[in-house]
Amino acid sequence: MNMAWNSTPGNLKLSPDYVDVWRVPLKPAPRIDEYRIFLTRQEQERCRRYKSEQRRREFIICRGLLRLLIGRCLDITPTSFELDYTEHQKPYLPAASLGVSVS
Fold first, then answer.
1. How much is the pLDDT for 20?
2. DSSP β-bridge partners for residue 98
């Protein structure tokens, strides 16, 4: 099994037949202002409820990058689709009937 982390492939596709794992360094915070503009009002409100500035930054990076990757997979802008959330606040992409796990 290859344990090396590769760079992003040119074409990304969502499929229920396989799992993609992405690793993103949170320090230093990559392009946080760019990711913040991708968040919906509900996601921004959820972000504001975090007491820790570090946790807010992590949430912005994770959700913003998640939207950027899904948008790239679907060939649409990161703000043009809806993410639903399970009762445990796990993201779900209803348009593709795919769950998304963020750790």
1. 74
2. 93
Query: How is residue 4 annotated by DSSP?
Result: P
Helix ranges, the chain (H): 32-36, 41-48, 53-74
Give the span between the Cα atoms of 21 and 13, in whole angstroms: 13
Predicted confidence at residue 8, as pLDDT, reads 63
Question: What's the rounded Cα separation, in Å, for the pair 80 and 58?
Answer: 22
Nearest one of 22, 92, 34, 93 to 61, comparing CA atoms: 34
Name the region of 97 (left: φ>0; alpha: ψ -120 to 50; beta: rest): left
Alpha-carbon gap, residue 18 to 59, rounded angstroms:
25
For the cut 60, the answer to whether the pLDDT of residue 54 exceeds it is: yes
